Fold this protein.
Amino acid sequence: MRKIVLIFLIISISIGYLTAQKPEKIYSFAKVDKPHKYYTQQVELWWKEIEKDKQNEEAWFNFYKANRNSYYTFKEKSLDTNKETQWLQETIFHKKKDDLLKLIRENIPNTFTFYYLKGKYESTDENFTFFQKAYELRPDISEIYPNMVNHYEKVGNYEKRKEFNQKIYETNEISPGLTNYCYNLLIGLKPNSILITYGDNDTFPIWLLQDVYNIRTDVTVLLLPMLTDPKYRQRMFNKIGIKDILQVDQNNKFTSLYKKISCHILENIDEDPQHTYVSLGVPLSAVQGYEDNLYLTGLAFEYSKSNINNIPLLIDNFENKYALDYISQPFGYDISQSAIDRLNRSYIPSIFKLYDYYTSAGDIHAANKMKWLGLKIAKNISQESYDYAKSILK
């Protein structure tokens, strides 16, 4: 019996090892959350596929994605050298952007991957023509669709943005968890609101909901990183009634740019005709100095120069508006579950606040509902988060 168990363990370990050595399709880390070590392994595995056949476009495309994700998940180990230098020294398989594009030009010129990377890497007014060329060559590759949505949002062509959001929807690759989260983010806002966002996962699903489902099209979304583009910023500021008098130095760090832009919006927005919200995905450093004017309403802060009693707003959102079944009873496999778990922690501050309110009011049933939801979310994040939540939700 012991020999059988031992053989089984050896086979299991061998299978696990072989599986780990297999190159896999690489997704954006915004969609699938993998550790840095995974991406460095995949960089090596896909490079070995390239060495077998240097005209293998699939291998080049996945190598590019693994290489990129490895860079963005790399943590600097020393302040004496910059991130790229340290990252390149980690393994011989990592490639700088310019070197990678040169290799792709030499081996698979005039392909989807070549033009896609030209659009990604060469930040010029012509880069969209590269994306267009890539799309013409391979309209079936869905990775190009968000780039098209991004461009048409930037130039204000909402019909074309809608067209490519429809394509994203039809690929059936959009995570139901991400769309549920963004539905709740949208539905909890007052009519004709402005919403400042920061990342892919609290922005692109919102545009999809607006374009495909016609949900909350009254909300104007301001993606903070995109507002560093002067033409886009001027157009969006005109839309919300703000003068673009910013002197933005493009050589500044992004964090200081984001703060300058977001604070300019909050300082100059007219609160009477429109309400302004900041998604909880926006770093607090970007709104530093305005914390006392931000009121938690669920998945966003509402900005107000006068005091707001946010408890009724939180109760209305959690009890009447938010669709929370995707948390309490998810059905089916979601490839983006780790990213969803990371996003869902934005519910926790509101849950803590409502739990305290219901407990103080003697509403034990409502308090227990908040406790159950908070612990379920926290458990999916990490053991540390779960232990902390248990210390609050007693």
Confidence is low (pLDDT under 50) at residues 1-19. The first strand starts at residue 194 and ends at 197. The chain has 19 helices and five strands. The CA atoms of residues 26 and 62 lie 6 Å apart.
